[in-house]
Write a structure and sequence with these properties.
The structure holds two protein chains of two kinds. Chain A has eight helices and eleven strands. Chain A is an alpha+beta fold. Chain A has two domains: 146 residues, 2-Layer Sandwich (D-amino Acid Aminotransferase, Chain A, domain 1), CATH 3.30.470; 69 residues, ATP-grasp fold, A domain (Dna Ligase, domain 1), CATH 3.30.1490.20. The two termini of chain A are 21 Å apart. Chain B is an alpha/beta fold. Chain B has three domains: 113 residues, Rossmann fold (3-Layer(aba) Sandwich), CATH 3.40.50; 144 residues, Rossmann fold, CATH 3.40.50.261; 151 residues, Rossmann fold. In chain B, 39% of the residues lie in helices and 17% in strands. In chain B, helix 5 runs parallel beside helix 6, helix 10 packs parallel to helix 16 and helix 13 runs parallel beside helix 14. The chains are: A alpha+beta, B alpha/beta. Chains A and B meet through strand 6, strand 7, strand 8 and strand 9 of A and helix 6, helix 7 and helix 8 of B.
Chain lengths: 227, 444
């Protein structure tokens, strides 16, 4: 179920047509989904402190109402491990159009997948699962199911993918924790039923999956226009 | 049945065609209606439906669009139980208001109708509202496929294909603009129709959220459902702002959701025909583990290729099964038959060898469906092979699918299967598609 604050975020975002990443992640976190530790700031000191305390490299992303597709604006920088680079990137990101704050978050390594939702004209909310990253539209290796789904359905979704062996663990790369993934997709599919009147499509991309966790590294919620 | 809009001057008017063929060739009592009254071919022309003395079960309305609302009102007043509205000139040509008016009148009175802008219904030996001269169309025999089509043309064409494969239909419905009766209503209707064993649809598109309702009813339905979707290619998809929206195009969603809920989606008319034939014999799904018995190595390989292309698995046959088959084969082939999957019994085998093979394959737990590729040219194959193998399949309780070349001289073999409810394909790939149909319908 959506909380009051989630509903307020959605209402307030309708003019823009989409929900900003930090707010979209707030909604996902409210569902109990795993999101990376982060700090949202315009201060280089605060960002630096976050990096010092982080267990590994961090990612910095521009948060801007003007930037929907961040990679097209080079608004995502991954693998930052020293304060100098962080400072340099913060300055560059803040100069991008509409960027007031930078999202600095811990970087998680694992298999990048996409979990998405589309509000289909004929069938209503459907959930999409596939290999993620920026090249999803090239490989188009996805499974689609009418929401809601049960976590057992997620197993059959993964089995229908060409990339199923990557999910199960391939060569020396560990596989994905199917129980965690199943729970996440099933719960996400109920969330989109709750959002049926409001959303057009949702990308959780990438969701980074390891043997223990499925972490939502980026989230984009496109809303129904003009309502 | 009343046919409203019969012309006094044009004998080839759709209403006249419908009136004449039902009046002369079907067991329904048919009345012709035209406001002018008088006689038509020495039969009375009724001025309006209310003038008909007896009860009217169904009206066929073929008047000009603007007169349809009035005619529907008269039918309701007369107590007609339902209608087929043939007339065009409604939503399909932008006339949404007029269609809504007719729909509102009918729904208010709980008066069901098919159409407008359709061919209506064809029930073999009962009634035929198609405005196509009887001698011009190919009619399938009475059977157990219920077929619903948004396009009248596709329905007529599909009837030709069904007839060509010897498939019979229980009822064919062209639902046209589907103003009142829609696909979802037809699922419920066919579910309760004892004659129908398979429900097939040609769908162009559903209304908003109607796909979800279709699925809800399909899930409740106890009969297999086959769907052929038109409009698979994306029509210049507008720039979409998210990955998911671009990945989940309308047709992909349709196709994946059908698969999710075990509605068998046929990719083309050929698959539709084949799926219907297979599912009218077997309504229970399979996992897709097929054993193949062939009389020729080449046919076995062709079938194996087709299986691979259609996602059908050819599991290994257990050593125990192989042993049992080998020890019972006739001496001539015992040493030369290849007992892998696909099995090649060679052109020297006799009826008994095929029976033994099918029987033991059916008992193999790795196999849930058997394809037999019969080449009737082989000297050891008798005319009774169809009936004999049907008996084996029936005793063993596993689905058997046969390939026999569809030539007149092999008809006795084909009938040996078909009269025993074993589907026969006219090509190797067709036999594999039949197995695919069963796999598509596996119980989730």
């Amino acid at each position: 179920m959506l909380s009051e604050s989630d509903r307020r975020i959605i209402e307030a975002s309708k003019i823009r047509g989409w929900v900003l990443e930090p707010q979209a992640k707030h909604i996902m976190a409210g569902q109990g989904f795993d999101i990376p530790n982060f700090v949202l700031t315009d201060s280089i000191e605060i960002a630096g402190k976050f990096l010092r305390n982080a267990p590994g490299p961090v990612v910095a992303k521009a948060v801007s109402e003007k930037i929907l597709h961040k990679t097209e604006f080079a608004a995502v920088v991954t693998g930052i491990s020293d304060e100098k680079s962080l400072e340099r990137e913060m300055i560059r990101l803040k100069a991008l159009e509409g960027c007031e704050q930078v999202l600095v978050e811990e970087m998680v390594k694992g298999l990048e997948i996409i979990i998405g939702a589309k509000n289909d004209f004929q069938f209503g909310p459907v959930v999409v699962l596939g290999l993620g990253g920026t090249s999803v539209e090239i490989y188009k290796d996805t499974a689609i199911r009418m929401a809601p789904v049960k976590s057992a359905d997620v197993v059959s979704m993964v089995d229908s993918l060409k990339a199923k062996r990557l999910f199960r663990g391939y060569r020396r790369a560990p596989g994905v924790n199917m129980a965690v993934l199943g729970h996440l997709v099933a719960k996400f599919s109920s969330l989109i039923m709750d959002l049926e009147e409001n959303f057009q499509s949702i990308d959780l991309n990438p969701v980074i999956c390891t043997q223990d966790r499925c972490v939502i590294a980026d989230a984009r919620i496109m809303l129904v226009k003009g309502s | 049945m009343a046919v409203i809009g019969v012309s006094t001057t044009h004998n080839s008017h759709p209403a006249n065609v419908i009136y004449t063929k039902n009046h002369l060739r079907y067991p329904v009592k048919t009345y012709a209606v035209n406001p002018k009254g008088g006689l038509l071919n020495r039969e009375p022309l009724y001025r309006q439906v209310e003038d008909i003395e007896g009860d009217v079960d169904m009206a066929v309305i073929a008047v000009r669009a603007q007169f349809v609302p009035g005619v529907v009102e008269q039918c309701i007043k007369k107590g007609v139980k339902g209608a087929v509205i043939i007339s065009g000139g409604f939503s399909e040509s932008g006339n949404h208001e007029l269609q809504k008016k007719v729909t509102d009148i009918a729904e208010e009175a709980d008066f069901p109708f098919v159409g407008p802008n359709c061919l209506g219904i064809y029930a073999p030996d009962v009634v035929d509202t198609f405005f196509l001269p009887g001698e011009r169309i190919v009619r399938p025999k009475k059977g157990n496929i219920g077929f619903v089509s948004q396009s009248g043309g596709v329905l007529v064409d599909q009837m030709v294909k069904f007839a060509g494969q010897g498939i019979g239909i229980s009822l064919g419905v062209s639902i046209g603009n589907k103003a009142v009766l829609r696909e979802i209503d037809m699922i419920d209707w066919f579910e309760n129709d004892l004659e129908t064993r398979v429900i097939a649809f040609y769908v162009e598109g559903f209304a908003r959220r109607e796909g979800r309702e279709f699925i809800r009813r399909a899930e409740r339905c106890t009969k297999p459902i086959v769907v052929l979707k038109a409009g698979k290619s994306p029509k210049g998809m507008a720039a979409v702002s998210s990955h998911t929206a671009s990945l989940a195009g309308d047709y992909r969603v349709f196709s994946e959701v059908m698969k999710q809920f075990c509605v068998a989606e046929a990719y083309n008319e050929y698959e539709l025909t084949t799926f219907c034939e297979a599912l009218s014999c077997y309504s229970k799904g399979i996992r897709g583990n097929v054993g193949i018995v062939s009389l020729s190595g080449g046919h076995g390989v062709l079938a194996a290729d087709a299986c691979s292309a259609h996602g059908i698995n050819l599991p290994q046959i257990t050593a125990q099964t192989i042993g049992k088959i080998r020890e019972n084969l006739s001496m001539e082939i015992r040493q030369i038959a290849s007992l892998t999957n696909p099995m090649d019994l060679t052109g020297s085998c006799v009826d008994g060898d095929i029976e033994i093979s099918v029987r033991h394959l059916a008992r193999d737990e790795n196999i849930d469906c058997i394809l037999t590729l019969l080449l009737p040219y082989s000297p050891g194959i008798s005319a009774d092979i169809g009936a004999k193998l049907s008996q084996v399949a029936r005793n063993e309780g596993k689905p058997l699918i046969a390939y026999v070349p569809h030539e007149d001289k092999y008809k006795i073999i084909i009938e040996g299967f078909e009269l025993n409810n074993i589907p026969v394909a006219s090509s190797v790939e067709g036999a594999v598609l039949m197995a695919k149909a069963l796999k598509r319908c596996r119980p989730c």
